[in-house]
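[recover] target loaded
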């Protein structure tokens, strides 16, 4: 389908940051590069922009954020709550809803039976080389019903104005003017194990090492720090495991088919004391992280999962790849996040695909 409000990851269109936000632009670029990205589509920034214009919210938001002090916690919380409440209570223009309905039906038609999806925020000032917004906006997992998915798209739009996101932008001098939000709607992975990997050692900055954190179930508990994962260090050149620490992995998120949601369950002792990835899976994660780094030409921080619905050996999927910012920023000049910065990042994405 062709719509300015919808862009499928695999439709071959450009990964424009101003249209897709950081996360979706990365997913489109990774899909075009042949990476194993679960299928999905982006509700583009054009949808958010039209929503705030047609509902009259844009001037309300701009006025609410004017002269806000990042250190005035009470004021930030009050403004955040007010903006998010307004976004979640306004009706979505019918032209956007119609295009979303068509896209959601198209996505579900790719599967043998209705598939749960993840709904993930993708802001235009997110996942950039000099401004990682990891954790600043929201992700919602294991959604099935169309109305539930649509409702959580608005919640993602609203998460552009959580207190933590507002404060982050204020303290990093990121202007609110022109800020927008795309949303990824993506097949939910039935994760046996999941986690993150960095193509630079986060403690030393050593670029010859890939560091993997892995735990049982859906990776959200690793990303949010709710579990102590297995930690594995891999030599980037030789692709050999050089060090590992078995984490406690006391809990995991797994699907509850009856409730159509994820539930947290305790991990049995016998699974806590063993590594959740085989040697082959560790090296597969390291290899895909290395591919992502080569593709984007800068150290990467990736999210990955082992999908139990796929055949062994082809069950590793890539959920996200964003630039590593802590060590990279020490050697690279800061990237502008305004118009010219967005154009620069977009050109870089296109060059990598081409």
């Amino acid at each position: 389908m062709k719509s300015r409000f919808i862009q499928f990851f695999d439709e071959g269109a450009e990964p424009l940051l101003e249209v897709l936000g950081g996360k979706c632009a990365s997913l489109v670029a990774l899909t075009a590069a042949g990476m194993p990205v679960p299928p999905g589509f982006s509700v583009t920034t054009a949808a958010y922009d039209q929503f705030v214009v047609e509902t009259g919210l844009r001037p309300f938001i701009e006025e609410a954020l004017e002269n806000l002090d990042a250190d005035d916690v009470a004021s930030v919380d009050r403004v955040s709550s007010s903006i998010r409440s307004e976004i979640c209570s306004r009706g979505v223009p019918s032209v956007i809803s119609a295009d979303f309905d068509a896209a959601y039906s198209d996505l579900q038609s790719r599967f043998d039976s209705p598939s749960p999806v993840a709904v993930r925020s993708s802001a235009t000032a997110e996942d950039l080389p000099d401004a990682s917004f990891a954790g600043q906006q929201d992700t919602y997992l294991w959604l099935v019903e169309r109305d539930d998915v649509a409702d959580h798209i608005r919640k993602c739009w609203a998460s552009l104005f959580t207190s933590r996101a507002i404060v982050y932008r204020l303290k990093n001098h990121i202007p609110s003017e022109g800020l927008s939000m795309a949303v990824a709607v993506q097949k939910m992975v039935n994760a046996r194990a999941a986690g993150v990997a960095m193509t630079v050692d986060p403690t030393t900055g050593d670029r010859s090492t890939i560091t993997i954190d892995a735990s049982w179930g859906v990776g959200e508990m690793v990303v949010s720090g709710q579990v102590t994962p297995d930690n594995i260090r891999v030599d980037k050149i030789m692709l050999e495991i050089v060090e590992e620490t078995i984490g406690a992995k006391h809990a995991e998120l797994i699907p509850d088919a009856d409730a159509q949601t994820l539930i947290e369950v305790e991990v049995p002792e016998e699974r806590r004391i063993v590594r959740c990835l085989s040697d082959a899976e560790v090296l597969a994660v390291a290899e895909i992280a290395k591919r992502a780094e080569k593709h984007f030409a800068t150290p990467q921080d990736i999210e990955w999962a082992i999908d139990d619905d796929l055949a062994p050996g082809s069950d590793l999927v890539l959920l996200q790849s964003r630039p590593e910012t802590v060590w990279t920023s020490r050697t690279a000049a800061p990237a502008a996040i305004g118009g010219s910065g967005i154009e620069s990042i977009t050109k870089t994405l296109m060059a990598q695909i081409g």
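[recover] notes: Residues 127-136, 333-354 have pLDDT under 50 and may be disordered.
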